[in-house]
User: What shape does this take?
Amino acid sequence: MKGPTMSPLGKYYVGAAIVSVLALFVLPLPSILAWLITIVALGAPVAAYFMLDESQRARLRRARRRGIGR
Assistant: This one.
């Protein structure tokens, strides 16, 4: 029996969260640098999504919906 799998998008979210936690709490970075790393790690996927034109966004939404329930 196969267990639940994580979508590729979910893997990106988990990776961004891990980078953010490392930057904020583990690495001995100055406060401003840690916040900048966090903002970039969480904001890059959002910025990339908004750089797509409307037809590309619609295609991406359709592909995500098809992947749900597989």
User: Anything to note?
Assistant: The mean pLDDT is 78. Residues 31-51 form the longest helix (21 residues). Residues 24 and 31 are 8 Å apart (CA to CA). The helical segments are 8-26, 31-51, 54-67.
